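Quick one:
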Amino acid sequence: MAAIIAFTRRGAALGRTLADALEATLHVPARFAPEVGAEAYDSLEGWTEKAWAEADALLFVGAAGIAVRAIAPHVRDKFTDPAVVSVDEAGRFVIPLLSGHVGGANELALKVAALTGGQAAVSTATDVNGLFAVDVWARERDMVITDRVLAKEISAALLEGKPVGFVSDFGHPCPAGLTRGLAELGVWVTYRRGEGPFLRTLRLAPKGLILGIGCRRGTPMETIRAAVEEALSGYEAQSVTQVATIDLKQDEPGLLAFCAAHNLPLAVFSAAELEQAEGAFTPSAFVAHITGVDNVCERAAVCAGGTILVPKQAKNGVTVAVAGRKIL
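Output:
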């Protein structure tokens, strides 16, 4: 969610319009907060610190210099900083100040300009030149950029008119400006790790891997982590988006701790639901005796929406299967 701050009554009126249209929060000085139905802020420094930690985007209604000074102590990295946009109180000029691509500031600036009838002052080189922007393309498709240096090299190569290749394991159409022909530098859309199809390959990893996990009662989190790391060998860990298991394990402390540590949701299925999963699975008479179904990890991963990529791997009382969601 975006957080909007305004400093005058005129700015607050524009801020109210933008907040309603963008489903954002509005913050103004206490003396006229009730007039526009906004939240009051105590200090610009305090508001900025809080919004920086909690909001996806910060929109300043006022002079760009105010925004620049407010955010300066917090700026760290284009891949983690929120979008920051400034718009004057008349809505004439909308300036994406920070995180134009990855954070979406350019897109937000264009939305604001459309609402105010103003001009978005987008200045990023690939946009100005109408070229493919790898960070925007990846963000729009919920993919992880695995190498920041190579991402910058790709933008630089395109600006210099050099060929940049493209390969997708999922059948993505080749984006305009890239090539399926020969190139030393290129983009590979894949779940996999390792050597790519180009001399210098930027891997874009979709967030679509599912971990199916089974374990003995009382298995520690670190034991589960080790088993997962081994099963994921050759695949991008940042692509993992969910963990799945049988409902008998929904309160398993080690498993819950693993999910919490990696910010992964846990999907649970009954034995009857797992039994309905379609496919060929690795059976275990012991598991069937304990749980009522012959396989937990593979079946759970399939029930969560994946196709098995790595079949059941067993290590220290933990079983792990890796499945991938359909991307296109």
